[in-house]
Amino acid sequence: MRLRQLEYFIAICEHGSFSAAADRLLVAQPSLSQQIRALEREVGATLLERGRQGVALTAAGRAFLPRATTAIAEVAAARQAVADVVNGLVGELHILTVRSVASGVLPAGIARWHQAYPATLLRLHDYSHRRDLEVAARAGHGDLAIGPRPEHWDGTVVSLGFESMVVAGRGPYGSGTAARVSELGAANWIHFEPEQGMSEVLDWAARSLGFTPRTVARVGQVAASLNLAVEGIGLALVPANAVPPGWNRHVRSLDPPLFRELVAFGRGPMSQLTERFVDELNAADLPLVSRASLPAGALIC
Questions:
Q1: What is the pLDDT of residues 100-151, one digit of tens each?
Q2: Domain 3-86 belongs to what topology?
Q3: What is the DSSP-derived secondary structure letter of residue 249?
Q4: Residue 245 and residue 262 in contact, taking contact as beta carbons nearer than 8 Å
Q5: What fold, for 162-260?
């Protein structure tokens, strides 16, 4: 049974004849008659009596009409419900991300989203490690994932920019100073627990720069690593966007500088709603560097 057949049937009932309904629907009368005959065959009964004075409902037709009308109304309501979600008037948007990005990168973009679509509830699900984020995204636990670029990803991936990594320590450090490899290799380090994604970043940076971190403590949160580093326990590698205002004297860039690309990704093509969310992120003043603005010789994690 097709919606078109129901619409044709209702139109005939409303206008009293096949010809009037055909004119109203802008279809050929033979086509309309063919669809009604097919509908009657499917329901197993004659719904309309044809006569010189027009058409009349049979007993079966009288039973069928209110249900056909309800079906058409429900389909229209369903279409409107989808349109309301697509247009951000109602509904929920589930965003998956990693914790450092949730707190250090996304707030400005989420603020823009809330201003543009205040009736849409945004649910933010954060994970400690990119592996957990990718597992959740593959399982369809969210509408969109935002985090480090995943490896071997078959779905849509959109680059958002690059976050700068900095080295935190007791300081204070002069403006514009950078941490060199010789210092990194000789220092004590605040490392991260393996289930924390920044552990992977520090290990990658150490391999790329050719030093082995001498670990004196392991933590599960970026904020804890910063606090321990500022107290002089050792150095910590953290995203620049995680450094609180006023703490810049305790952090330095690396030489060469280190960046991590952040992307928006999903299992398949993005929906209209997720595309709009990415647009709002790109329009926001996120603490990210564009590819064109990366410094020469930068390392990309």
A1: 999 999 999 999 999 988 988 999 999 999 999 999 999 999 999 999 999 8
A2: Arc Repressor Mutant, subunit A (1.10.10)
A3: G
A4: no
A5: D-Maltodextrin-Binding Protein; domain 2 (3.40.190)
